[in-house]
Amino acid sequence: MIDNNKIVIGISCFFAFYIELFLEAREYYFTGEYSALLNNQISLDVLLRLCLLFVLCLMLMGVFVRFSKKFYALGRHRFLAGTILVAFCTYFELSGSSLGVWAGYLQHNISMVSDLMDIGTVWGIPRAIRSDEWAVFTPFNLSQEFNDYKSVTEIIRGVNTDVTTTYGLACYALVTLFRPFLIGYMIFGSAKGLAFFWASRTVFLFLVSYEFGKMLTKKHVHLSWAYAIAITFSQTIQWWYSINGLLEMFLFGQLAIVLWDWLIHTDNRWKRVVISLGMIECAGGFIFTLYPPQEILLGYIFAVLFIIFCLMHWDEIRKKDFFVFVFSLILFLFISICIIYGSRDVFFTLMHTEYPGNRIETGGDEDVRTLFYWIISLFTPVDEDRISAISNASDAASFYSLFPMGLMLSVYGMIKKKKADALSLGIIILEVIFLLFSFVGFSEKMAKLTLLSYSLTVRVVIIVGFLELLLLFRAISLQENTALKSKMSYVKCGCALVFSFFAAYLIHDAGSTSCHVIWMLAILTSSVVVSVIRDKKKFAYIFSIIVVLSGVHVNPVQVGIDVIEDDVLVETIGEIVKEDQDATWVVLDSGYPILNLPIMAGAKTVNCTNVYPNLELWSSFDADREYSCAYNRYAHIIIQMTEEEQEKFVVLGKDLIVVNLTEEQVKSIGATYVLSSKQYENDFEKIAEVEEYYIYKIN
Question: Would you call 47 exposed, middle or buried from its count of C-beta atoms within 10 A (0-12, 13-18, 19+)?
């Protein structure tokens, strides 16, 4: 029998161990060595710290249980609370960016907590693996302040570059109407704009997920809150928070269905006008994320859910509702055509790149064990380097879906009631299709016909986790609530433990953590969650607390962008740019991410990350187009200056290339300034030296 006191004690134990592991993970960040529990060792100091953390967590849990009804009552004021939270974070410049990683590249000594505090990281661990965020997307947006937020910039690539397409930056353009969270940059500037971007997306996703959760769970309040938390603070969302538009896909996809539900239940003319505009915003916000690997998959899901919800409420839909829908669709298509036409050349270039344009996926190569990675995914924030069954913590991150529990409960519920649930059936059909694609594979023709050729199997598995989450919450909401007070409770707990052991066994040798405590917590945690599935309220409480605790520890709490703005090298580049604004820069003999450093000072940089290829420039070194497949891609470009002719283009990775150029060829690029970590003895004029970096002027 599992009573409330045992649950409180159990959750407090989980809290204590998790926070201890996170503190040890932060110590590992400084020293590079595992210690204490992460190294399967325990000492008196660790035991005392665990006891202290347990007592503190027990007190917090006591407060939560005592005032839980009032916490849920805050739901009536959730929109006001969300607005206040966004305003607070924006004013104090609080974000989850990992900009702090730049400190190591800029020769700052980061060896203790106070050093992180000095660069603005007040809590957490800057995630180097999320380089798409701190080394590309955020620097790109910071560079826009020097471009006055125009839709075309020369700062990126050193030539005219459309910033409305790949990565979609803050700019005054029609497409920005569909990227509302970037508006903060243009209103508040870079530091507060970054904070607004992070805070507003979190709050909006949570609020929208709650509304969608009410539709999914038949307005069960506790399950709706738990669902909102399961989405917003999932490892998937948090590890992929700032790039590729994954969060926007979930936000706008769910919101479109919620708005449609509101539309068919209101007669107020002005509300209907606002809702129709909101539906247009959702369509644009979803489609113009421009990341097909997940956009196609989620497009299928939300389209199916939309159709099913329409069928479920068919009697409530009126002719004027269809009129509003058709009008919104026509207006959206008109706006979309204008946007696409304005960037048609860029879209054409992107579609004909070697990567990602010519990528074709037929599936069938995914490891079945990745479906069970949810059991260990909660602990990616505390053992990032070792928890990886795929390639890195980001790819290993998944929804806490309890796969295949959602599928099993849904099928069992429909068999028991001898009645099919249309929503569950639709989700199951999609899940089967996605699983077949991932583990069996489609023919190339079928993959192209279904558009799944644009996806990646590793992304498909993540989306299957989302489908399992939908099935899980739907199945729990449809079942009868049963408190665990019978002898069967022990049987259910035993079955849950066996299920968790099985899931852990499947992935234990897939390159995952070797920390015994993490495995113990993973197994026990999932066992408890599974065992209380029949009690909706307890399930919601336990599930929510576990997911929140792990989710909030993925990204750091970063205050401002002083780590960039106050850096001597960035300031030096900025001073040169002010005196010679039209000059072009090139980064030599320095790798990624340094090649993206000058743009944060407003320097027009030839070989910063090329979001689409500068074919005119790179083909000038390849008259026969022998290496076109190397540079015709999205790429981080490392230029090395060589004394003799070498192979011009070398592909190190799908998005990383090296260009070997002689001194004369470097000069032919047309750059005026050089940033390098190497000293040159040639006719380059050294004009500045900062730490281990040198700035030259090409005469």
Answer: exposed
Task: Report which of 280, 279, 262 is spatially closest to residue 271, judged by C-alpha positions.
Answer: 262
What values do phi and psi take at 475, rounded to 5? -65, -45
CA distance 298 to 296: 6
| Whether the Cβ atoms of residue 19 and residue 53 lie closer than 8 Å to each other | yes
Kind plus residue range of the DSSP H or E element containing 103: helix 102-105
* Cα 108 versus chain centre, distance: 27
Q: Where are the alpha helices (DSSP H) in 134-189?
A: 138-143, 183-188
Chain centroid to Cα 479, Å, comes to 33
Q: What is the DSSP string of 442-460?
A: --HHHHHHTTGGGS-HHHH
Q: Which residues pair with 684 in a beta bridge?
A: 698
Write out the two tokens for 322: 């269809």
> Six-digit token pair at 583?
């000059």
Q: Which two tokens stand for residue 357?
A: 């344009």
Helix (H, G, I), strand (E, B) or coil at 120: coil
Position 214, amino acid? K
Token output for 491: 């049987």
Cα angle 244, 250, 309; round to 5:
150
DSSP 352-383: TSTBTTT---------GGGGGTHHHHTTTTTS
DSSP character at residue 623? T
Angle at 541 between CA 554 and CA 370, to 5 degrees: 50
* Whole-angstrom Cα Rg for the chain: 26
Provide the pLDDT for residue 3: 60
> With a threshold of 0.70, does the pTM exceed it?
yes
Q: To 5 degrees, how large is the angle CA 163–CA 165–CA 166?
A: 95
* Residue spans of the chain under pLDDT 50: 1, 484
Q: Nearest-5° angle of CA 123, CA 70, CA 95?
A: 25
CA angle 339, 344, 347 (to 5 degrees): 100
Q: Distance between CA atoms of 29 and 352, rounded to whole angstroms?
A: 41
* Secondary structure (3-state) at 125: coil
107 dihedral zone (left: phi>0; alpha: psi -120 to 50; beta)? left
| DSSP three-state, residue 674 | strand
Residues 176, 182 contacting (CB under 8 angstroms): yes
* Residue 4 CB-density burial (10 A; 0-12 exposed, 13-18 middle, 19+ buried): exposed
Beta partners for residue 697, in sequence order: 673, 685
Q: Name 698's bridge partners.
A: 684
* Predicted pLDDT of residue 495: 72
Q: How many CB atoms are closer than 10 A to CB 482?
A: 14
Q: How is 285-324 classified by DSSP, letter by letter?
A: HHHTT--HHHHHHHHHHHHHHHHHHHHHTGGG--HHHHHH
DSSP class of residue 396 equals H
Element (H, E) at 584: strand 584-588
**pLDDT (tens digit per residue) in 571-629:** 999 999 999 999 999 999 999 999 999 999 999 999 999 999 999 999 999 988 899 99
Annotate 64-85 with b (16+ C-beta within 10 A) or e (fewer).
eeeeeeeeeeeeeebeeebeeb
Q: Residue 545: how many CB atoms within 10 A of its CB?
A: 18
Helix/strand/coil for 659: strand
